[in-house]
Amino acid sequence: MKPIIFIPGIQATSLVNSNTFDFNYIWNAYDTLGSSIGSSIFGAYINENLQFNPLYDQGIETIIERNHIAKFPYENSILKLKNKLNKTRAYKNTPVFLFGYDWRMSNMESAKRLKIYIEYLKHKLQDQDIEGFRFITHSMGGLVLSCYLNLLEDDFSGIDKIIMNAPPFLGSPYALVHMVKGDGGLRSILNWAIGRNEDMRKVIRTYPGVYELLPAYKNALVYNDDNLPLNLLEKKYWQDNIYRDIELLFDSRLALLKEFRSPSGLKNLADLPKKLKDRMVIIVGEDDETFTNIKVDKKGNNRITNLIDLNSLNSGKDSGDGTVPFKSSSIYASEIKTLAVKKENFFDEISNNLDFHGLFLNDSRVQNIIQRYFLTEDADPKLTGLKNWWDTPNGSVRKVE
């Protein structure tokens, strides 16, 4: 048996206050097309701050726990995979386990909880002949798994295969935009009109998980006047009004971010043994215009230091999946098989045009890659009639060299 563990992306696990009689939602995951479109128009909203110690909520009586995983972005693809496995004798009745997590917290903390969860599964399945766990991740879930790999102390014997989808290894400018202006785009206008936008951006500034999505690749942020780069690991490069009223808390979050970006936090996948890297596939999106580079004014008109020039975002677009830049998701292409899925036109892949990144696992090409890779030991291209097992008839999937 090779059980599958699925780890979703940020905001894809609903959160509830368990210290109530009916487990009140503080964050409801996107379960339907209507809820997803509604959130896109009216804006996501959450108002629970984390304490200085980010393991706890600020509300004295608030105890937040994970609830269900969003159905709309994932249910169809996971059920299709299960059905496909059940039709194959060798993988019939393969269990799929869903690891939801509190995405507000550090991915390092979520990795610790993942380790506990996997130990629980090992005991639960102790009467089964387990050959190793298989992992599917989406977006931030790839960071959780990468931190988990660091906790294994080079003992990867319990892992069979890994597929990471749209992983933001080096972050995305969207995280910084949310911290600066709230939810962004049309949502910002509507949130501002009903007085929620300022609340939203102040709340997410207390979430380590958002800090860990900040862009960390070369020249993600540069100054307008001299093009010198900024380093968000250093406080002196931050827009100062972001942290002015929460300076001690901000300092602690920045220290946690440095730990996350250190060798003891996020695992450098290039350092994994070749035997494990050969059992991994990374699937990334490309050719969707994605905010990639941001310009910064050293002093804004209102004397804010390091003022983010939000107007520069449109000129700083590059290839990606609409949320994660290609240069962030594809950094391990020379070490680990990385497959790029091209954004298609409206009639080829409708989900691409709704949200390429968010609905990545709904893409039929992504589903085919996952199924082919899991259904055979070597993903033999003869099974598909194509040159490579990941190929598509229209050539919209390529191996990144």
UniProtKB/TrEMBL annotation:
Among the GO biological process terms of this entry, one is: lipid metabolic process
Query: What InterPro entries has UniProt attached to this entry?
Result: AB_hydrolase_fold (IPR029058), LACT/PDAT_acylTrfase (IPR003386)
Q: Which Pfam families match?
A: LCAT
Domain of life, per UniProt, equals Bacteria
Show the GO MF annotations: O-acyltransferase activity
- Name assigned to this protein: Lecithin:cholesterol acyltransferase
